[in-house]
Amino acid sequence: MVLTDDDKSHVKHVWSVVLPHAGDIGADALTRMFAAHPTTKTYFPHFDLTPGSADIKAHGKKVAAAIGEAVAHIDNIAGALDKISTLHAQKIRVDPVNFPLLSHCFLVSIAAHHQEVLQASTLLSMDKFLGRVCAVLTSKYR
Ligand code: HNI
């Protein structure tokens, strides 16, 4: 789905609000994903998946940083996420159905913590943007 100029500016605005808390939002999104979709836990047998654990906090920061990179390079999301895309497709081999689950949880976390920034227009743009992120992260599966 093509991101319009309006979408891009909405995404950048939402991210500027989220950024100071991005790691917490990432951790909250992971916690929601593990609770709502327990099968996703099978990819993290080496993690302490208790809500608030050091593993979840550290991984939340990494996921949020990757999304931040995609925002910063919104005209070249595939380039920005190239290494992570290869990692998921060739090494971690996460079933592609799981990506929209995490991105939905990410949106829910933003809505829960920064409700004011999500209007119909910005929510739609973030949804489209996260859809692009998922498309990139699943583009190398063969
Ligand atoms: Ni994902 C590692 C980003 C979806 C399972 N993941 C990473 C890393 C980033 C990342 C960044 C760290 C890479 C590194 O260490 O170099 N993951 C993202 C993003 C999304 C995503 C941006 C989607 C929006 N990952 C998912 C999903 C699953 C998943 C949906 C499984 C349900 N990811 C993993 C696992 C690792 C991982 C497992 C390795 C964790 C570790 O540290 O061992």
UniProtKB/TrEMBL annotation:
Top-level taxonomic group: Eukaryota
UniProt entry tagged with the keyword Metal-binding: yes
Keywords annotated in UniProt: Heme, Iron, Metal-binding, Oxygen transport, Transport
GO molecular function: haptoglobin binding; heme binding; iron ion binding; organic acid binding; oxygen binding; oxygen carrier activity; peroxidase activity
Recorded GO CC terms: blood microparticle; haptoglobin-hemoglobin complex; hemoglobin complex
Gene Ontology biological process terms from the UniProt entry: hydrogen peroxide catabolic process
Signal sequence, start to end: none
Globin domain segment(s): 2-142
InterPro entries: Globin, Globin-like_sf, Globin/Proto, Hemoglobin_a-typ, Hemoglobin_oxygen_transport, Hemoglobin_pi
Family per similarity comment: Belongs to the globin family.
PANTHER family in the cross-refs: HEMOGLOBIN FAMILY MEMBER (PTHR11442), HEMOGLOBIN SUBUNIT ALPHA (PTHR11442:SF48)
Protein name: Alpha A hemoglobin
Organism of derivation: Podarcis lilfordi (Lilford's wall lizard)
